[in-house]
UniProtKB/TrEMBL annotation:
<feature type="region of interest" description="Disordered">
    <location>
        <begin position="345"/>
        <end position="368"/>
    </location>
</feature>
<dbReference type="GO" id="GO:0003700">
    <property type="term" value="F:DNA-binding transcription factor activity"/>
</dbReference>
<dbReference type="Pfam" id="PF00356">
    <property type="entry name" value="LacI"/>
</dbReference>
<dbReference type="Pfam" id="PF13407">
    <property type="entry name" value="Peripla_BP_4"/>
</dbReference>
<dbReference type="InterPro" id="IPR000843">
    <property type="entry name" value="HTH_LacI"/>
</dbReference>
<feature type="domain" description="HTH lacI-type">
    <location>
        <begin position="9"/>
        <end position="60"/>
    </location>
</feature>
<keyword id="KW-0238">DNA-binding</keyword>
<dbReference type="InterPro" id="IPR028082">
    <property type="entry name" value="Peripla_BP_I"/>
</dbReference>
<dbReference type="InterPro" id="IPR025997">
    <property type="entry name" value="SBP_2_dom"/>
</dbReference>
<keyword id="KW-0804">Transcription</keyword>
<protein>
    <submittedName>
        <fullName>LacI family transcriptional regulator</fullName>
    </submittedName>
</protein>
<keyword id="KW-0805">Transcription regulation</keyword>
<dbReference type="InterPro" id="IPR010982">
    <property type="entry name" value="Lambda_DNA-bd_dom_sf"/>
</dbReference>
<dbReference type="GO" id="GO:0000976">
    <property type="term" value="F:transcription cis-regulatory region binding"/>
</dbReference>
Length: 368
């Protein structure tokens, strides 16, 4: 195994062997022990790691983060990205944010086409955007000019992105079906499924998996879809109110997107508060609704982990760290009022609610 990336003397010092022994190992000559071979392999791996760290320490990378999402989710991504950047080790990475909400696909494509131009250096893109051919074409053009893209939280089909980082959306939809099948399966009525917009592939994956699994888990309950409202509380409240006024009683709710404060207000106004309610993401609104019992469970994925993974894939695409860019899907974590992560005040919330634990969390009657 001839390795010319490090001097024989350096490998020998790292492995604690003589230069002659190392030379024989590197050139696969006879007369060396298995222990010596392992020591040389370990030394080479450590020297590679150190060389990578030194190389990274001399690089300053700019990553453009493009987010088509409501403000509460954008704020969570901003915080997670800043923390992830600080945990990348020796690399100097700066995140540059481009926040939009409800932009047309052509406008998003125009934004992506402008990244890295006009004297503004860019080394890659993290992208949360609709699954649209115009956006996909812009991602391919970005790669052609040396800007790799990692899709974040929701994927884009056939766009030439180097990796996806975020929730396993199909697993999340199936998990929601499992939970509501047990919680709402014996109740009369329908299950209300709300989503932000079907143009987002992640929500389509959640919905498809939910409907498929729920048909098995609770074959007697129909799923009524309310969606394409961009997660806006007021619009979602009006749509849910209309569904409640003109449909069967609600046995449960699965919210794939946002607008959950609006959903809770509509349920309360119709006297349907307290039904099993599964939502996504531990943002500030959902934390409040979860703690008060308006939401039964939240399907959570740690954005900090997702952002670290996404940035690592961009570093891999530039060959600044070992390995090829790889899609990493986060498994959904089921969070109830009693296992909220401590960094989000979970322990304090549990302690504060200990006296009323026997009665369980009380449903909310409204939202902020």
């Amino acid at each position: 195994m001839v390795r010319r990336s490090h001097r024989v003397r350096d490998v020998a010092e790292q492995a604690g062997l003589s230069t002659a022994t190392v030379d024989r190992v590197l050139h696969a000559r006879p007369g060396v022990s298995a222990r010596a071979v392992r020591a040389v392999e370990t030394a080479l791996a450590e020297l590679d790691r150190q060389a990578s760290a030194v190389h990274l320490s001399h690089r300053s990378l700019v990553v453009d983060v493009v987010l088509d999402a409501p403000g509460r989710f954008r704020a969570a991504v901003h915080d997670a990205a800043r923390e992830a950047v600080g945990m990348l080790g020796a690399a100097t990475v700066r995140a540059r944010f481009h926040d939009v909400e409800g932009a047309t696909p052509r406008a998003l494509a125009h934004l992506v086409d402008g990244l890295g131009s006009g004297g503004r250096v860019s080394h890659g893109i993290l992208l949360k955007a609709p699954d649209d051919e115009h956006v996909g074409a812009a991602v391919r053009r970005a790669l052609d000019r040396g800007l790799p893209t990692v899709t974040l939280v929701t994927d884009i089909a056939s766009c030439g992105r180097v990796a996806y980082a975020g929730l396993d959306n199909a697993a999340a939809g199936a998990t929601a079906a499992y939970l509501l099948g047990h919680l709402a399966g014996r109740r009369p009525g329908v299950v209300l499924a709300t989503l932000s917009h079907r143009t987002f592939r992640g929500e389509r994956e959640r919905l498809a998996a939910f409907e498929a699994r729920f048909a098995v888990a609770a074959p007697g309950l129909a799923v009524v879809l309310v969606g394409d409202l961009r997660g806006e509380d007021e619009a979602t409240e009006r749509a849910v109110t209309n569904a409640l006024e003109h449909g069967a009683p609600v046995a449960g709710v699965y919210s794939m997107g946002g607008g959950n404060t609006g959903v809770v207000r509509a349920l309360a106004a119709a006297g349907a508060e307290g039904v099993p309610f599964v939502a996504h993401d531990l943002d500030a609104d959902n934390l409040t609704l979860l703690r008060t019992g308006a939401i039964t469970a939240v399907l959570h994925h740690d954005l900090r982990t997702d952002l670290r993974s996404a940035l690592t894939q961009l570093l891999r695409a530039h060959r600044l760290v070992p390995g090829a860019p790889t899609t990493v899907r986060s498994a959904p974590q089921v969070v109830t009022p009693w296992n909220i992560p401590p960094r989000l005040g979970g322990r304090a919330a549990a302690d504060a609610g200990a006296e009323g634990a026997a009665d369980g969390p009380r449903p909310a009657t409204g939202g902020s």
